[in-house]
Write a structure and sequence with these properties.
alpha+beta; Pdz3 Domain; 2-enoyl-CoA Hydratase, Chain A, domain 1
């Protein structure tokens, strides 16, 4: 994604596996996280310093409208404002996240508010006239007009991404109305993959069933609607308390196998998944497919499905299990034995010491700090760089440049198989640009880019650009995300449940021709034998390649 330093900074998509956080495993917590913006220092206008309290009758409620950024254009925003114990509290919902009120005042007809999110600060100064707020927002490097209209009473204050509070069917219906109104309005082409008629029919069906659904089932219904839009960046995020289960699974051929577990579940490691509760695994996959993006490749859908099948909230919402916190898996071992293992959900934020089948992992699967790590493979005279994010690439770029001058490697390998995206312009500047200019390395058989199903967002874009702009050979598996599609995500928050809805805002085209996919020059699909023995046949092929 292109960079942005203004108030409405674009968040980065981050598909992250549960186990070890370094493996390109199923996308359990597949939902992108916000990219924290730079710390912005803001001088509040003098009106804020003079008044620090609110009183009964001062402006409050739910306000909807727009803010026009000098850098990003007109954006939809919502203000939820309450006077609590004599002080303003609430949130400003923007396309990149939910800002929290940290200070506010009202004097005469002037409302002054300060908001923060992950170190970023914004102020709003507005005049109040009836139900209208008209004024400006300001950050250190951006400002513009704000126009809001009061649309109702203030909603209970809750953090975006937290588990929905106990809502009434009417409150869920209000969220549904908001979702089906705002998502098609904000997405640039919402009915490219699913007709408006089909979308509205699915919404009407969900509305008719809300009275008899639990909150997890309603979440599944909302996410299904979002995934009908079709692209991989449009969905409803799991809340933080999504009941992740202490295992990961991955497909090898026709089998789904347990590839990582938390301590205490070692008996399940390596076994094939036969059923979840009483649901055969094939049927469970069909159910989970209802919350996969309809217009992406089958491989991306399968990867996301694998993650859903180890997330208690999804399993409960899909009616596979009756208890989101405890799930029984029926497993089959390679020696013909069948066993049943009960997995209890992890606490929110809990990160156990994951156990994997192989005692020693290849460098491509080992943890990295920051955006990536380069390793000198002396026996192969190769510099291999495992890049996990297309962000903060300056140090990696310097390491590559220094190594090219010092060691003159025979080959350079850029591994994007576990890359969660970021800003493709940074990939162009720090990876593609320098390697493209090096006449010794930018030759067939000397520069390799490793790709896979979970090469995501900006990493997918850069992989396609490596092909067209350099002599690199792409090795691995076809990328799951379609290169010509709607991307660049923004978001909004549902008013009652506080569920976060992500949506694409711009169309990108990265490949020509009839096949809308980034295919490797050499397809290599790792097997279960490779995986359990700690082998990386994709990297091995690149190291052994000879012109």
């Amino acid at each position: 994604m292109p960079p942005s330093t203004h108030l409405f900074e674009r968040p980065m998509d981050m598909p992250i596996p549960a186990s070890n956080r370094s493996l390109a495993l199923p996308i359990k917590n597949r939902r992108p996280r916000l990219l924290p913006g730079p710390v912005i220092s803001v001088l509040l206008l003098s009106a804020v310093a003079g008044y620090s309290q609110c009183r009964s009758g001062d402006p409050n409620g739910r306000f909807d409208g727009s803010a026009t950024s000098a850098q990003a254009g007109k954006l939809n925003v919502s203000l939820n404002l309450s006077c609590v114990s004599g002080h303003y509290a609430g949130t400003l919902d923007t396309p990149t996240g939910l800002y929290t009120v940290t200070r506010g005042s009202f004097a005469e007809d002037r409302l002054s508010l300060q908001f923060t999110l992950a170190g970023s600060v914004v102020t709003v100064e507005a005049r109040v006239a009836g139900n209208s707020l008209t004024g400006t927002f300001m950050t250190a490097d951006d400002k513009g007009p704000v126009q809001l209209e009061r649309t109702g009473e203030a909603l209970p204050i809750a953090a975006a991404g937290s588990s929905p509070v106990s809502l009434t069917p009417q409150q869920w219906r209000e969220d549904l109305v908001y979702l089906i109104r705002e998502l098609p309005k904000r997405h640039p082409d919402p009915f490219a993959s699913t007709s408006r008629t089909a979308f509205e029919a699915a919404a009407a069906d969900l509305n008719a069933r809300i009275d008899r659904l639990n909150s997890d089932e309603i979440y599944i219904g909302f996410d299904h609607l979002a995934n009908l839009i079709g692209d991989a960046h449009t969905y409803v995020k799991f809340p933080d308390d999504n009941a992740n289960l202490p295992l990961d699974i991955r497909r090898f051929g026709d089998d789904l196998r347990v590839v990582a577990v938390a301590p205490g579940y070692e008996q399940a490691l390596g076994a094939r998944v036969v059923a979840i509760q009483d649901t055969p695994i094939a049927r469970a996959q069909q159910l989970a497919a209802t919350i996969a993006p309809v217009a992406e490749t089958d491989s991306l859908k399968e990867s996301r499905i694998e993650g859903f099948l180890t997330t208690g909230m999804a399993l409960h919402g899909l009616d596979i299990t009756a208890d989101r916190g405890l799930t029984r898996y029926t497993l089959a071992t390679d020696d013909g034995k069948q066993l049943m293992v009960d997995f209890r959900a992890l606490s929110p934020g809990e990160e156990p010491k994951w156990i994997h089948p192989a005692a020693q992992w290849p460098i491509s699967e080992q943890p990295v700090d920051g955006s990536g790590k380069c390793t000198w493979l002396g026996s192969a005279a190769t510099l291999s760089c495992n890049v996990h994010k297309i962000l903060d690439l300056g140090s990696i770029s310097r390491e590559i440049r220094d190594d090219l001058r010092r060691d003159h490697p025979d080959k350079v390998v850029i591994d994007l198989r576990q890359n969660i995206g970021g800003d493709f312009n940074l990939g162009l500047k720090y990876l593609i640009g320098p390697l493209r200019k090096d006449k010794e390395i930018n030759r067939k058989g000397r520069l390799f880019v490793l790709i896979g199903v979970n090469t995501f967002s900006a990493a997918m874009s850069n992989a396609a650009q490596f092909r067209t702009m350099t002599s690199a050979l792409l090795v691995g598996q076809p990328i799951g995300e379609r290169p010509n599609s709607y991307q660049e995500p923004r978001q909004f928050t549902l008013p009652n449940s506080r569920l976060v809805v992500r949506y694409s805002s711009r169309y990108y085209k990265f490949v020509d021709g009839p096949d809308n996919v980034v295919e490797p020059d050499k397809v290599i699909v790792p097997t279960w034998e490779d995986y359990k023995n700690g082998r990386d046949p994709v990297l091995e092929w690149a190291l052994e390649f000879r012109n």
